[in-house]
Specification:
With about 100 residues, the chain is mainly alpha-helical. It has one domain (about 5-95). Helices cover about 75% and strands about 5% of the residues. The chain has a two-stranded parallel sheet with strand order 1-2. Helix 1 runs antiparallel to helix 2 (about 30-50), helix 1 runs parallel beside helix 3 (about 55-95) and helix 2 (about 30-50) packs antiparallel against helix 3. The longest helix has about 40 residues, at about 55-95. It is rod-shaped and about 75 Å long.
């Protein structure tokens, strides 16, 4: 019986995916999500070429999906900060013109 190998970076991708969601309301979530997506590409390719040789695809896939979610949340947070910050600055600049 052949021993299956662990997919490379499967645990790391899972941890990065979880952290990207947890820290999604900070700018760190976007970076961690992108790193998780990049690290998962090699393992996903290896598994799809020969699934019988590797184990840990569930962790890799879950981390990949959570990294995508964390990246989206981080991007939405950055968009929110830019829009709210621009609105506040705009309101403050209009308010000072009337005095």
């Amino acid at each position: 019986m052949e021993q299956k190998q662990q997919l490379p970076n499967s645990t790391v991708v899972l941890v990065l995916g979880i952290c990207s969601i947890v820290f999604g309301c900070f700018f760190v979530g976007l970076v961690l999500g992108i790193i998780g997506i990049a690290l998962s590409s090699n393992g996903r390719k290896l598994y799809k070429e020969n699934p019988s040789l590797y184990e840990g695809y569930a962790n890799l896939n879950a981390g990949y999906i959570m990294s995508i979610i964390g990246t989206i949340l981080g991007g939405l947070y950055i968009l929110y900060v830019v829009l709210v910050g621009g609105t506040v600055l705009s309101l403050l600049s209009h308010r000072t013109q009337y005095y």
